[in-house]
Amino acid sequence: MHVISEQRLEDGVLEREFTLGEIPGILWTPASASVSAPVPLVLLGHPPMGLRLVYPRLVARARHCAAEGFATATVELPGSGERPRWPAAEQARADLRRALEAGGPVGGEIVDALMLPLVDKAVPEWQAALDALLALPEVGGPVGYSGGVISIGVRLAVVEPRISAAVLFAGSFVPRAMFEEAGRVTIPLHVLLQWDDEGNDRRAALDLFDAFGSKEKTLQANMGGHTGVPQFAGDAAAQFFTRHLSR
């Protein structure tokens, strides 16, 4: 992991941009983090729109977590932002846009083509980033995962034993194959659902929640569209991580 820039935000949070091979990322650590007092880590998922575009939302989430004593980090998803183009993913997104504009149901083949290759590429990269982040003396775990593409969160929860708890946002299309994987998820979950999310299949989101194998799982559903998540929902997610990540 190569740090390419760093700055101290006004609330004392240290922001470091880094690269991991060709993968850009950002790490935020609270002022309390030190070699003698390493802090837990929350991985911040995000939609495949490019880190620069979603940065304002990411830094707000990072500062919220820092106030609770957690470090946070994120990495650019394959084919997004400044990473090399991924023609197959671009074609899948174009097919999805056409299906949505036509007003009909989105076929499973489109969802599979869009999501499954992304999950297969992104999850090993998140794991490599986690290796590098946990090697830093001021970051000690335990580790949580928050938000982003829910299928990536499901796969990470299945294959990555270092993740102790996850906050998932039911706001993206989910391939049917992920429902079987959801049954193998056992970590504590807090799932956010916007009831009127225009781009989300509410029935599928509820079925996915039902499929999770976790003994502790909470579904918080709020009225409103995709971008209308209320502030108190973020507060509840922070309390969830405090319960499960604080030593």
In short:
This protein is of the alpha/beta class and 247 residues long. The protein contains seven helices and nine strands, in the order ββββαβααβαβαβαβα.
Strand content: 15-25%
H/E element order:
EEEEHEHHEHEHEHEH
Question: Which ranges are low-confidence, i.e. pLDDT below 50, for 5 or more consecutive residues?
Answer: none
Query: How do the strands line up in the largest sheet?
Result: 1-2-3-5-4-6-7-8-9
Query: What is the count of distinct domains?
Result: 1
Structural class: alpha/beta
The CATH architecture classification is 3-Layer(aba) Sandwich
Helical residue percent band: 40-55%
Number of strands: 9
The whole-number mean of residue pLDDT values reads 90
CATH level-four homologous superfamily name: Alpha/Beta hydrolase fold, catalytic domain
- The CATH class name reads Alpha Beta
Number of helices: 7
Largest sheet: 9 strands, mixed
Structural shape: globular
Identify the notable features of this structure and list them briefly.
single chain; about 250 residues; alpha/beta; Rossmann fold; 9-stranded mixed beta sheet; 9 strands
Structural description of this entry:
It is a single chain. With 247 residues, the chain is an alpha/beta fold. It has a single domain (2-82, 119-245), classed as Rossmann fold, CATH 3.40.50.1820. 41% of the residues lie in helices and 25% in strands. It has helices spanning 51-67, 87-102, 108-134, 150-159, 177-182, 202-211, 231-245, and strands at residues 2-8, 14-20, 23-29, 39-45, 71-75, 139-147, 163-169, 189-194, 217-222. A hairpin with a 5-residue loop joins strand 1 (2-8) and strand 2. Helix 3 packs across helix 4.
